[in-house]
Structure formats: structure tokens, C-alpha cells
Amino acid sequence: MVRNPLTPEERRRGERLGEVLREARGGRSMVAVAASAGISAETLRKIETGRAPTPAFFTVAALAGALGLSMDELLTHCAPAPAPVPGPLPEPGVLPLTA
């Protein structure tokens, strides 16, 4: 199976995830947190540094549990920004003109 290259936004999201996890880990060792989550320290290292920008759901869930984070917190910090709305919004009750 060939995997499509990640988009720049997917890479940035992975980097944000790594930053959030690293901050939540604080002074705890990478080895201790990884063991608590049931993953290898190398896997955690790759996630924290952005070298594994799309870790498996259950890996992220296990890390969140080990670090006392909720999945909602991770989503808030790592979700892509909403797409900008093109052009100005029409006034309420006014239909935009179409060509």
C-alpha cells in the first residue's frame, strides 16, 4: 500500500500534537510516560518531535490518559483552523447577487 504524502497542514497538526504532549509531560521522563501509555520511548520521541505526525488513535488516546489530558483538550490544541470564508458575508436577509 502506497501512502499519500502528508499535506503541510497535516504536518503542522502533528507538530502541535507533539508540543502539547511534551508540555503535558513536563518534568516526567519520556521513558516513564511511554511505559505508562504502553508504547516505546522511541515512539513517544517521534511523536513529540513531529517525525510521526499521524500516530494511531489508540496511541494518542493512551498518551492522553497517561498525561491526564482529555481527547477534547488535544482536539482543541491540534485541530486545523477553520477555513476562511471567501469574501464578505452578506447582510442578514439580503441574498447575494449571482452572475
**Low-pLDDT residue intervals, each spanning 5 or more residues:** none
Tell me roughly what share of residues is in helical segments.
40-55%
User: How many beta-strand elements?
Assistant: 0
The class by helix and strand makeup works out as mainly alpha
Distance between the termini: 45 Å
* Secondary-structure element pattern, one letter each: HHHHH
Average per-residue pLDDT, rounded, comes to: 87
Largest sheet report: none
What is the radius of gyration?
A: 19 Å
Characterize the overall form.
Answer: elongated
Strand content: under 5%
Enumerate how many helices there are, as a single number: 5
What can you see in these coordinates?
With 99 residues, the chain is mainly α. Helices cover 55% and strands 0% of the residues. The chain contains five helices and no strands. Helix 1 crosses helix 3, helix 2 crosses helix 3 and helix 2 packs across helix 4. The protein is elongated and about 60 Å long. The N and C termini lie far apart (45 Å). The model has no long low-confidence stretch (mean pLDDT 87).
